[in-house]
Design brief:
Blueprint lengths: L1 E5 L4 E5 L3 E2 H8 L6 E5 L2 E3 L4 E2 L4 E6 L19 E3 L4 E3 L1 H17 L16 E6 L3 H12 L3 E8 L3 H18 L3 E5 H5 L3 H7 L5 H19 L4 E3 L4 H14 L2 H6 L3 E2 L8 E3 L7 H11 L15 H15 L3 H11 L2 H7 L8 E2 L6 E2 L5 H10 L3 H4 L12 E3 L2
Parallel strand pairs: 1-7, 10-11, 10-13, 11-12, 13-15
Antiparallel strand pairs: 1-2, 3-6, 4-5, 4-7, 8-9, 12-18, 14-15, 16-17
Length: 400
C-alpha cells in the first residue's frame, strides 16, 4: 500500500498501489493545481510512477514531476509543471524562472507610472517575514539578486505556532548571514494577538493581527532608516483580495490595491509586493527546491477568514482554465486607473502625524493607538500604564 501523508489538516491515508501520482490525486480527490507531491524528498509530477510501498507527502499548494515532462530550457527531466505557463522546469531553471518573475515585478510593476521601478540597489529594504514559504522565499530571492535587505519578524503571541515561526526565521537568517529584527508584540506594546482579539470586540482576530503588523512594519522601517517595506503577498493572495473587494464593491480598497503603495506623508515608507506575479504553488515549490524550511501549518486562528474561501473558488477556476487567476489580477491592474480616477484616489485623504505616536494617520489618533488604548484598558496588569506605543528600539536582532 502507498502511504500518503496529507497536510493541513495532517492525516495519513493508505492507497492501493502501484499507481502514478495523477491516479493517486484522483483517488484522494485532490486538486493537482493546489498541491505539490513529494516522494523521497523530491518533487514528482503527475506522470511519476509510485511503487506499492512508496511513501509520499502531499502539501497544500505543492505538486510535482520527474519522469514525464522535460525542462523548457535544457530538456533535462523536469521536477515541476506549471500549466499557467505551459512549461516545466528542472530545479536549476525553475529557480531562474521564479527569480526572473520577481525581477520583472520589480522592474515593471503594473498600476504604476511608466518606467517606475519598485526599488533600486541603493535602497535599504526591510522584508516582513512570518516563517511561511512566501516571505522566506522572497528574502532568499532578494538576497540572491544582490539587494540590501534585512528581515523583520513580529512575535504575535500565538503559542507554539509563534515560537516555531520565530525559530525558523532566526535559523534562516543565520544560514544566510542576514540580519533579522525581532519585535515581540506583547513585550513592546502590552498585548498579543490572542489577548487583543479577546477584548477588542469590534475587530476579528485577523483584524487585530493585520492592523498590528502593518503598524510595526512601518514604525520599525521609519525608526531604523529603511526606504522600502517588502511583503510576501503572492498572486493567490492578491487575486483573493481582489475578488473579495469586488464582491463587496469596496471601491476605495480597489483604488488602493496595487503592487506598489507609495509613501504619502511623513514617517511613512513605500510598500511593495514583488511576488504578485507568482502563485502559492510556485513559491512552495521554490522553497522545496532551495531547501528552505518553513511553517507548513496554517495559523490556528485563521478559521473563518473569507480570504481562504475566495482562494478555493479561484483555485477551482484555475483547474478548469489555467491562467485564470493571473488574467483576473493582471487585467485589473492594467485597468487600475479607472478606479483611481473614479474615486479621486491619487489625491486621497490628507495624511498627518498621529497625536499619540507620530506615525501616519488620516485622523488625530491612528487606528493602532485607538486599538491599543481599548485593549490596555481591559488588560492593565499585562500592559502597565503607558498611554502611548513605545518605540520597538529594544527589539532583538539576529546578525551574521
Amino acid at each position: 500500500m502507498v502511504r500518503v501523508r496529507l497536510r493541513n489538516p495532517d492525516r495519513v491515508e493508505q492507497v492501493e498501489g502501484p499507481l502514478d501520482v495523477g491516479e493517486l490525486l484522483d483517488r484522494l480527490d485532490v486538486n493537482p493545481t493546489t498541491v505539490l507531491v513529494i516522494c523521497d524528498g523530491n518533487l514528482v509530477t503527475a506522470s511519476h510512477d509510485l511503487p506499492a510501498d512508496a511513501e509520499v507527502e502531499i502539501r497544500p499548494v505543492i505538486s510535482g514531476g520527474a519522469d514525464g515532462p522535460s525542462c523548457a530550457v535544457c530538456r533535462a527531466p523536469a521536477v515541476i509543471e506549471e500549466p499557467r505557463h505551459r512549461a516545466a522546469w528542472c530545479p536549476v531553471h525553475y529557480v531562474d524562472h521564479v527569480q526572473n518573475q520577481v525581477r520583472k515585478a520589480i522592474d515593471h510593476p503594473q498600476a504604476t507610472p511608466a518606467r517606475e521601478r519598485m526599488f533600486g540597489y541603493a535602497d535599504r529594504l526591510l522584508v516582513a517575514v512570518s516563517g511561511g514559504k512566501d516571505s522566506l522565499a522572497l528574502w532568499d530571492i532578494l538576497l540572491d539578486l544582490g539587494y540590501r535587505v534585512d528581515g523583520l519578524y513580529i512575535g504575535l503571541g500565538i503559542g507554539g505556532y509563534s515560537r516555531r515561526s520565530q525559530e525558523i526565521c532566526e535559523a534562516f537568517a543565520q544560514q544566510r548571514g542576514a540580519h533579522l529584527h525581532v519585535v515581540d508584540l506583547a513585550e513592546t506594546y502590552g498585548f498579543s494577538t490572542v489577548t487583543g482579539s479577546q477584548v477588542a470586540t469590534n475587530r476579528s482576530t485577523c483584524g487585530v493581527c493585520g492592523l498590528s503588523k502593518r503598524y510595526v512594519f512601518n514604525q520599525v522601517a521609519v525608526e531604523r532608516g529603511y526606504d522600502v517595506v517588502v511583503t510576501g503577498h503572492n498572486l493567490d493572495d492578491e487575486a483573493a483580495t481582489l475578488l473579495g473587494n469586488l464582491l463587496r464593491w469596496h471601491e476605495d480598497f480597489l483604488a488602493r490595491q496595487r503592487p506598489v503603495l507609495p509613501a504619502t506623508g511623513a514617517n511613512q515608507v513605500r510598500k511593495c509586493k514583488p511576488l504578485y506575479r507568482l502563485s502559492e504553488r510556485e513559491m512552495a515549490a521554490y522553497c522545496v527546491i532551495r531547501g528552505i524550511d518553513y511553517v507548513v501549518e496554517e495559523c490556528p486562528l485563521v478559521d473563518g477568514n473569507t480570504g481562504h474561501e475566495h482562494k478555493e473558488i479561484l483555485s477551482a477556476l484555475e483547474r478548469a482554465a489555467p491562467g485564470a487567476k493571473a488574467q483576473f489580477l493582471f487585467g485589473f491592474l492594467d485597468r487600475h486607473e479607472r478606479f483611481t480616477e473614479a474615486e479621486g484616489a491619487d489625491d486621497g485623504p490628507t495624511v498627518v502625524a498621529c497625536g499619540r505616536c507620530g506615525m501616519p494617520t488620516v485622523g488625530e489618533v491612528c487606528a493602532f493607538c485607538r486599538q491599543r488604548e481599548r485593549i490596555l484598558a481591559v488588560l492593565p496588569v499585562t500592559a502597565g500604564a503607558a498611554p502611548a506605543p513605545p518605540s520597538p528600539a529594544t527589539d532583538r536582532n539576529v546578525a551574521p
